[in-house]
């Protein structure tokens, strides 16, 4: 039986077995990495009738999934595991994609959609397009140019960039490379004096919005990441020295505040943090990681400027609820008082339009651009943004929308029959 005849699951199991077997010792390094990576991933690629190959040129990418396989082949298992991982049995990771697959878009005909306006102004910032680049940590684990390549791609393609606290680029350098304000994602170090220094620095650099991520305070059990780490036979000490201080090595937002070794997630954090932020900086405050109406109401009561629906791309809780399913209750609770951002599982323009139709003001991508980055650096991120723009435009036209900010609620329906798991 040929490898191609096996089901995805069987193939993964077989590759996993091969990767772990002594036979793999004789294979070229790249082949072993590919096997290891394929065995690891649980996301899979859509079961299209034409088999996907590993693209060798960025222009050959037909959709963002084409970058996933290349990223797998290029990254060492530990780094791939970090990029791909969900938590526990990865129910939330799957639910993010399944949630989009359960929704349909109602196509409308004979509307003049020759001109489609994708612009908007959110929290005082003019956006050329509703798709934004989510904050993701440690981008140099995926490509030597890391967040710098992402900032340059976001500039070239005119997308809003959000920078992680644990980025390998400073907020100053990100804003310089992006050429426009970059929003700062904040994990406050547990010591408030240190946290203050960091956020004051981000404001001084010109970042107008702080995104307080609240979905990791309870911790996360990243099993695929751990399996990838165990599979990786390299000596990792050169980059990670194994101490808590080592975790923030090469993380410039921690420079000069003495925060090395201080944890930056806090299970004791409460809504009181919003007032602390307000008392410290004049930046707009968006709370990232909200998935319920109750927390939306609390966030608004505490005076936030925006609510960001996210489950960290399935990397936080294993509750098994996709964000596109949670979006309507958050939008209803927000009652138009503040913009609602969303991410997690967005891979296609039709996903973007579904989220817009359900009331999101802007839609974030995480893994999609990281796959592009790992595969081809800045050019890969640019191509991912181009593909999503092109797909979004077509989907907007199909639902008869001439403005991205004007997709009607009636454009989105729940499908009577849930499609088979994995439809992408
Ligand atoms: C490798 C990786 C690192 C991430 N690091 C951060 C981070 O430092 N801060 C944060 O708020 N979210 C982080 N996220 C979550 C993203 O901001 C975003 O919520 C998520 O990637 C969206 O889901 P998607 O990957 O399915 O598009 C990270 C996600 C990934 C995949």
Gap from first CA to last CA: 27 Å
Q: Number of domains in the coordinates?
A: 2
CATH architecture of the largest domain: Alpha-Beta Barrel
- Number of helical elements: 16
Helix/strand class = alpha/beta
- What are the distinct ligands in this entry? flavin mononucleotide
- Which residue ranges are poorly predicted, with pLDDT under 50 across at least 5 consecutive positions? 1-28, 39-44
Number of strands: 12
Strand order of the largest sheet: 4-11-10-9-8-7-6-5
Radius of gyration equals 21 Å
Helix content: 40-55%
Question: What name does the CATH topology of the largest domain carry?
Answer: TIM Barrel
Mean pLDDT over the residues: 88
Overall geometry? globular
SSE order: HHHHHEEEEHEHEHEHHHEHEHEHEHHE
Largest sheet: 8 strands, parallel
Walk me through the structure.
With 424 residues, the protein is of the alpha/beta class. The protein has two domains: 1-39, no CATH class; 100-414, TIM Barrel (Alpha-Beta Barrel), CATH 3.20.20. 40% of the residues lie in helices and 10% in strands. It has 16 helices and twelve strands. It has helices at residues 8-20, 29-40, 65-74, 77-84, 91-101, 146-157, 171-178, 192-205, 223-231, 244-247, 272-280, 293-301, 323-334, 349-357, 367-376, 378-398, and strands at 103-105, 120-122, 125-127, 131-133, 162-163, 183-186, 209-213, 284-290, 306-309, 340-342, 362-365, 412-414. Strands 4-11-10-9-8-7-6-5 form an eight-stranded parallel sheet. A two-stranded antiparallel sheet has the order 1-12. Helix 1 packs across helix 2 and helix 2 packs across helix 3 (65-74). The two termini are 27 Å apart. 50% of the residues are buried. The model is unreliable at 1-28 and 39-44 (pLDDT under 50). The structure holds flavin mononucleotide (FMN). Flavin mononucleotide binds at residues 82-83, 96, 134-137, 164, 166, 185, 213, 288, 310, 312-313, 315, 343-346, 364-368, 370.
